[in-house]
Amino acid sequence: MALPYAASPYVLSLLLLLSIPAVFLLAPRLLPPKTLPAIPDADETDDLALFRRAVLLSSAPSKDSSAGAGSSSLFGRRPPPKVAFLFLTNSDLVFSPLWEKYFAGHHHLLNLYVHADPNAAAFTAPDTPSFRGHVIRGSKATQRASATLISAARRLLATALLDDPSNHFFALLSQSCIPLHPFPTFYRALVSDNGGPRRRHRSFIEILDNEPTLHDRYYARGDDVMLPEVPYDSFRVGSQFFVLVRRHAVMVVRDRRLWNKFKLPCLTKRKDSCYPEEHYFPTLLDMQDPQGCTKFTLTRVNWTDSVDGHPHTYQPEEVSGELIRDLRKSNATHSYMFARKFAPGCLKPLMEIAESVILRD
Question: Which InterPro entries match (predicted)?
């Protein structure tokens, strides 16, 4: 006697069709989630050794030269505080001729450090007096949507801390950044800002807690992965480019607790929400010294027509004195001092207005 339905090809086909959606629904729960590549152990070991040396040899916070505007205007026997310009790049520094003009006559107040991705075959060290010989040893590969960009910034900070005890301000920039004001204007803005605790200089770093993408970014590494070190209410977002004071630079290279969370790779399926370099620095500083930060950046970025997470890229035909003056405008106490993102072809028109606009207030 034949079993009812069992031999029916229509029933079997129906069951097969019904099982396909179930497979798609259950598979993500049964299979481990794929993740982006992690930081190589060898790179992590090298970095830890560098960071330990930087912390041990750096000035203690109590001896920080950031006592206030009075000490920065009358330096006494102390050398004036210097600005460490930290360039993080994976391509040629095409705007080095413009920066050369910007630095001219002020080298006693600044130092330069360049972290160039060794995997960027097109990179050629700038052959200009300011940049020559300033590509740091130990530069390592960087990758978007990974903590390698945090590591590179920390390497630059540690190198600058070790190199010169007079480095007091640490300005992180990219290859697509340009200056908007002459150097003396930027320097005065830094040394005159002493609104932090005990009238110390503050760091200029964007710190936001109400961005609409914050939820997705917090869970980019998986559910509850950031706990207990980084509760959701403490998670922040901000620009990856900043100006840190020395005590905060030491704080960053000394950190292990938060780094152990932020260095974890994101899930591939959440790659679009993985921008760890925009979270690690503002979260760390807001958790440890919120009053010591201005909570806004000095680098102007245009996000009005962003593509794939990249901001607007200015083209040569957009460059003008009017554009520079417009980019300077800010709702904060200080105007913007730098701007990105500029296409390489902008060098020529920028050089044409350098003396008349960029290097003149």
Answer: BC10-like (IPR044174), Glyco_trans_14 (IPR003406)
Q: Letter for the amino acid at 359?
A: L
Provide the total of helices (H) and of strands (E) in the chain, helices listed first: 12, 7
Tell me how far apart the terminal alpha carbons of the chain are, to the nearest angstrom.
98
Give long-range contacts, CB 8 A cutoff, 24+ apart: 303-308. Answer: none
Q: Are 308 and 337 spatial neighbours (Cβ–Cβ below 8 Å)?
A: no
Within-domain flag for 120: yes
Strands 167-174 and 82-89, bridge-based pairing: parallel
Q: What is the DSSP string of 40-106?
A: PHHHHHHHHHHHHHHHHHSPPGGG-S-S-HHHHHS-TTSPPPEEEEEEEESS--TTHHHHHHHHTT-
78 CB neighbour count, 10 Å cutoff: 11
Strand ranges, E, within 100-236? 110-116, 167-174, 178-179
Q: What is the pLDDT of residues 227-268, one digit of tens each?
A: 999 999 999 999 999 999 999 999 999 999 999 999 999 998
Q: Which two tokens stand for residue 247?
A: 């005590």
Q: What 8-state DSSP symbol labels residue 328?
A: H
Q: From CA 335, how far away is CA 338, in angstroms rounded?
A: 9
Q: What's the number of CA atoms in the CB half-sphere (13 Å) around residue 240?
A: 28
Residue range(s) defining the domain that contains residue 126: 41-58+79-299
Q: Establish if 222 belongs to a structural domain.
A: yes
Q: Is residue 174 part of a domain?
A: yes
Q: How far is CA 360 from CA 31, 181, 185, 292, in A?
A: 60, 7, 9, 30
Cα–Cα nearest to 35, from 344, 305, 270: 270
How many folded domains does the chain comprise? 1
pTM of the prediction?
0.87
Q: Are 292 and 203 in contact (CB under 8 A)?
A: yes
153 closest CA partner among 220, 85, 238, 103: 85
Residue 69: alpha-carbon gap to chain centroid: 27
Of residues 189 and 6, the one with the higher pLDDT is 189
SS3 302: coil
Measure the CA–CA gap between 55 and 43, rounded to whole angstroms. Answer: 18
pLDDT digits (tens, 9 = 90+) for 25-83: 554 454 556 787 789 999 999 999 999 999 999 855 444 444 444 444 445 578 899 99
154 occurs within a structural domain: yes
